[in-house]
Design brief:
Keywords: Signal. This is DUF4309 domain-containing protein. Pfam families: DUF4309 (PF14172). By secondary structure, the chain is α+β, with helices and mostly antiparallel strands. It folds into two domains: 1-52; 54-181, no CATH class. It is built from four helices and ten strands; from the N terminus they run ααββαββββαββββ. It has helices at 2-52, 57-62, 78-85, 130-137, and strands spanning 66-67, 72-73, 90-94, 97-101, 105-110, 115-122, 142-146, 151-158, 161-167, 174-181. The strands form two sheets. An eight-stranded antiparallel β-sheet has the order 3-4-5-6-10-9-8-7. The protein is globular. It starts with a helix and ends with a strand.
């Protein structure tokens, strides 16, 4: 009787130990699946953020007069812009030309040609710094205080165009990005 009891206890012990191992393996697999899912979600979030931030694509498109963050092209007429964007929130004059301000973007029109010669976008929410800008686009051709506007500018020469970023000071977050035709 004592032998049966020992055998029964041994079998019970093996069953409990085996269940614990199975449960442990199930937990390991479940944890691994959760980690894989978490990693893929984290990667997807990073990719989405990357697509919204500054990339070298901004330079490449800029050489063709295309403002990468909005995919708008310099040289468009007032009618082409308003047909696509709708009615501007505000219009006025800036440095001898007309500006059309929309919710996200502002276009500047040359009064002689009636075509856009600059596009500006507020990007302060991106919290872009000089260091991140240089990492994405390389060293700017010009990095200096623009005394006329009172902003520090980081400028990239793109032959017929200029891609310019503006911050209150060299060490502040960049507030605006411009693509403008070099006249």
């Amino acid at each position: 009787m004592r032998g049966k009891m020992i055998v029964s206890m041994a079998v019970l012990l093996m069953l409990l130990t085996g269940c614990g191992q199975v449960a442990g393996e199930v937990n390991q697999h479940a944890n691994a699946a959760v980690k894989i899912n978490y990693d893929s979600v984290e990667r997807e979030i990073a990719e989405r953020h990357e697509s919204e931030s500054v990339t070298f694509d901004w330079i490449e498109k800029g050489y063709s007069g295309i403002f990468a963050p909005t995919n708008d092209r310099l040289g468009e007429t007032f009618e082409e812009i308003t047909e696509r964007e709708g009615e501007p929130i505000e219009t006025g004059y800036y440095e001898g030309g007309v500006y059309l301000q929309f919710e996200r973007v502002t276009f500047f029109i040359n009064p002689e040609t009636q075509r856009s010669v600059a596009i500006a976008l507020q990007i302060e929410e991106e919290a872009l710094t000089e260091k991140e800008l240089k990492k994405a686009l390389g060293t700017p051709d010009i990095s200096e205080m623009n005394q006329m506007d009172g902003y520090w500018m980081f400028s990239y020469d793109l032959d017929d165009y200029e891609l310019m970023f503006e911050a209150k000071s060299k060490d502040d977050v960049i507030e605006f990005v411009w693509l403008r035709e070099v006249l």
